[in-house]
């Protein structure tokens, strides 16, 4: 059954939460009195739709239903999860919580607050045990981090449930065990921010120079390892202790101005705003968002390939979905439709078409599904036998573009105890965009040579082969590259 | 003529400099009295060779010659550039500079110092005008940033020459206009470091939790935009000034402990070292280096695809090389080695082999690089023309496994105004793991039909075709699937 999230406060952060829930198949009700809220949410949702699916290698669930509620009561009714993202004013948050808990006192109620502690948020609440911090990072629909901060008054079981919900929408809940102003990450951001204000004010560096000093160097490091793991490497074989002893003394050196805070006056604001215009003013905010999101998708896909950091979170999220996506294929006396795919943003090359290698990927998805069907899946391989692809001929016959839904069907051309010759059609709206003719060999993986497949596998295979013998042989079979058509 | 760099001090940083110069075709002489230096340098160089070429889409120059010099004098003799990376002790640096300048008083002399100002480095020097800060970031062979800091005593023309040299080895020289302790980036690192020490000491978070708080959130942002551009987006259409006015008040809130410095005692060292062991101790430092480098390559390639940030630096560096690569093609009639890849965890199927579709991916990387080489890259496509792949025949000839390093080379079989018939070899240790025979068609993307390529593209293409006409035709060409060998 579809679950429901209530989003209270529909700015950039609330909109990011809404997009994440919707694209992960949750229904969402938003409450925000701002008449501009629907437009703002639409913009965030458009950005999310253009980027989040590119991180998934399994079909996404159908998008949830979005409702703009007229009252907090309507929004939170029957909600399985409530996220508050109103302005950073404690009194306002308390009023909103009273309204929420008058209608839904038991639902997990996360706050996007950057700075307040959960015990502050809970003050005077009807049910303090359900209120906690769930602090996300912009863009909420892409960045996995959510700092989950309970107070001693929180219900531990509810916190665990909330963390499961955050994982369900692809996030990485970081359980912050002791509450503290600004939690963890924002303390670092604040430290860097204060130092940066000094550097600009003192004319050491412009906003652009500061940004380059970050993104050309340690910023790249911090996207994949944090502070300590990076320094562990710097310490080398001598170890972390050696590193610490070497760098400890710097603590007393004048390497930061952070003992002090710059005066925050109009002059400083104008200086920074002017430098920022010079640096980035030639891009609109929408353009900057797209550039940012596209780069973040690139980083996260790089990490996904390596099953590291944020990429590990994505892989775990996919694995949970794959099971659902694979169930429900049945054999038939016709080419077997085995794969259903959607062309994701990350599959597109600079021509705007699906990249070449994704056609072969679609073919592999189809043949893998076929092998599972005849009993030569994961367990079979784990026991030491497998089909290897020896040869493939691909015909590119059409163009697959962003968002296209493709099917992969397979016809057995011939098969014996060791060889399996198949023809795969990748189709869009019933018309082929590519065909793949493949020769697979059954191998003993330990001996490293071809051998007959197991009798139960051959029984399934030969049954399908015999029924497919009645099918017309596709004209594209037996072709070599450059051969004239017809 | 090959140029020479002298590297004084051969630790991780000096080794990183040496690797960057060598892989960019410079000869390098290293001086380091440590008998362990050659082993350490070899290790850094092995890491660099395994990662830096993966960032290049044009053939790299031949690797330079590495010499371990017995004296500073031997090292700096005839050097076009000198980089000092000895320990952070000012008196030691002064002694080393005296030795260097007694033998090479006029060469640019950059220091890797994290903290000292150039005017401090210049004190008492024979020729202060040539001494400046060139502060790199580990791993030096991958991260583009070098903070270049002159003092008023520096020679501006020499500083410009040094910046050109840094660009020549693929770096991004950030000219810091006013000298200051710890330059720019390390001030931020120091601020975060001090805050992190407090968080660990106070038991708020472990080293692992802090690292997750960074790399799952703002760390990903900072690899592609810095602090100010990120916040500019957060400010939205209302602008940077609005953002500043909203967040200015936080400066007086207790969001950082940075007004204070934690006591750096054994207890704190043990706490951090112990937590770091628990977090990362199951990986050796070498493993962590490989994981880091592989992820950095992934990030930088993602940015390169988008021509943004560090990726823009890489593209500019490639562009400078492309001309040299093209002019070199008529010298030797050989298949062009265009792609360098490593088999990543995400590329492996449940057989433990590189998935089928990654062979085609490797082929695409090779043909894409070829198209860029002949002038049919991104700009050409943006202007409405492109080569589409019509047909591909893949022979699977070997097994690529996790961590294997592959190269992709391309031979032109035939080409006319519209058609391009190529043969691609994907090789591991010089032996093919797969070959791809491809037919590409040149198309007018708006009209949606084949058309002749631009004259300047054809000029490059035909020159390569004509030189490749002398090469033997690979026996695997013209095959169809299932055809007997021989």
TrEMBL record, chains A, B:
GO function terms (MF aspect): carnitine 3-dehydrogenase activity
Q: What is its EC number?
A: 1.1.1.108
Per the UniProt entry, what species is this protein from, by scientific name?
Seohaeicola saemankumensis
Q: What is its main location?
A: cytoplasm
This protein's name? L-carnitine dehydrogenase
Catalytic activity, per the record?
Answer: carnitine + NAD(+) = 3-dehydrocarnitine + NADH + H(+)
Which residues are noted in the entry as NAD(+)-binding? 9-14
Superkingdom, natural source: Bacteria
* Listed InterPro entries: 3-OHacyl-CoA_DH_NAD-bd, 3HC_DH_C, 6-PGluconate_DH-like_C_sf, 6PGD_dom2, HotDog_dom_sf, L-carnitine_dehydrogenase, NAD(P)-bd_dom_sf
Give the record's subunit note: Homodimer.
Q: State where the protein is found.
A: Cytoplasm
Pfam families reported for this sequence = 3HCDH, 3HCDH_N, 4HBT_2
Using the record's annotation, list all stretches that form the 3-hydroxyacyl-CoA dehydrogenase C-terminal domain.
184-248
Q: Identify the pathway.
A: Amine and polyamine metabolism; carnitine metabolism
Q: Does the keyword Nuclease apply?
A: no
Origin organism lineage: Bacteria, Pseudomonadati, Pseudomonadota, Alphaproteobacteria, Rhodobacterales
The entry assigns this protein to a family as follows: Belongs to the 3-hydroxyacyl-CoA dehydrogenase family. L-carnitine dehydrogenase subfamily.
Please list the residue ranges annotated as the 3-hydroxyacyl-CoA dehydrogenase NAD binding domain: 4-179
Q: Which key words are in the record? A: Cytoplasm, NAD, Oxidoreductase
Q: Per its UniProt entry, what is the enzyme's top EC class, as one word?
A: oxidoreductase
Q: What does this protein do?
A: Catalyzes the NAD(+)-dependent oxidation of L-carnitine to 3-dehydrocarnitine.
